[in-house]
């Protein structure tokens, strides 16, 4: 098994090469439509490395017409093909992939689960919030870190309305994702909810955020009854 960090470097090199090929397509040197059709057919090739390269190329093309075949590739017998398909679906960003990617959070291979959480963060599907919270307890540290980042990205897009229920739920381990959501959204109301929720880590983050942005936010524990773990 290739360590995740080495796997990421390996992927970067191959995706750079695929990006060069995409540039050739833009210059008219390679007919994109023909290449896409060929890549879809290559997802069924008997050689795993050919299937991996095909999934990578489809992700570079970011063509939504490849979503269906790539979703099928999430169940490939080769773990690296599954990972590449998850990456490609994240690059395309089609919400049809959210459900199948959530299913990959239970994949037996850690690098597939890691890629699935990364892809879900890019697509920003609200349906992924609860599964990503569960992934914060994954046995693999890289998957947990990826789930934190993905959850923070999604919550940052959804805003205060999505964050308040999580504060009230008070799930241990969600604090880092909530803090990332604040830093990405720059939502003053969210900062005030943090400051008054009773969780010291969120309160400190709210104070740091306000200081950085030149805001003055006030402590008022009764504000909106948004208490950490108040619905436990």
Task: Itemize the secondary structure elements and their pairings.
Elements: H1 4-26, H2 32-42, H3 48-61, H4 67-73, H5 79-92, H6 98-103, H7 110-123, H8 129-135, H9 141-158, H10 160-169, H11 175-185, H12 188-195, H13 200-213
Helix pairs in contact: 1-3, 2-3, 3-5, 4-5, 5-7, 7-9, 8-9, 9-11, 10-12, 11-13, 12-13
Can I get a quick summary?
It is built from 13 helices and no strands. With 232 residues, the protein is mainly alpha-helical. 41% of the residues are buried.
Describe this structure in words.
There is one protein chain. With about 230 residues, the chain is mainly alpha-helical. It is about 70% helix and about 0% strand. It is built from 13 helices and no strands. The longest helix has 23 residues, at about 5-25. It starts with a helix and ends in a 19-residue tail after the last helix.
> Ends: how far apart?
40 Å
| Rg of Cα set | 20 Å
Query: Helix and strand string, N-terminal first?
Result: HHHHHHHHHHHHH
Alpha-beta content class: mainly alpha
What is the count of DSSP helices, taking H or I runs of 4+ residues?
A: 13
- Main sheet? none
Overall geometry: elongated
Q: Strand fraction band?
A: under 5%
What would you call the quaternary organization? Answer: single chain
Mean pLDDT: 87
How many strand elements? 0
As residue ranges, the low-confidence spans are: none
As a percent range, the share of helical residues equals 55-70%
């Amino acid at each position: 098994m290739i360590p995740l960090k080495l796997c990421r470097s390996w992927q970067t090199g191959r995706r750079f090469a695929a990006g060069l090929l995409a540039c050739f397509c833009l210059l008219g040197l390679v007919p994109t439509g023909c290449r896409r059709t060929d890549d879809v057919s290559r997802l069924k090739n008997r050689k795993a490395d050919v299937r991996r390269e095909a999934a990578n190329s489809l992700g570079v093309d970011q063509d939504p017409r490849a979503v269906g075949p790539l979703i099928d590739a999430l169940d490939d017998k080769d773990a690296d093909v599954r990972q590449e398909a998850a990456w490609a679906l994240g690059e395309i960003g089609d919400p049809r992939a959210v459900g199948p990617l959530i299913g990959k959070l239970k994949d037996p291979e850690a690098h597939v689960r890691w890629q699935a959480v990364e892809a879900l963060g890019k697509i920003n599907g609200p349906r992924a919030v609860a599964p990503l919270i569960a992934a914060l307890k994954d046995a693999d540290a890289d998957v947990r870190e990826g789930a934190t980042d993905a959850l923070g990205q999604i919550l940052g897009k959804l805003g205060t309305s999505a964050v308040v229920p999580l504060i009230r739920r008070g799930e241990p381990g969600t604090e880092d994702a909530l803090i990332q959501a604040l830093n990405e959204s720059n939502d003053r109301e969210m900062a005030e909810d943090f400051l008054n929720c009773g969780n010291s880590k969120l309160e400190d983050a709210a104070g740091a955020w306000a200081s950085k942005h030149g805001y003055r936010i006030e402590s008022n524990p009764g504000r909106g009854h948004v208490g950490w773990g108040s619905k436990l």
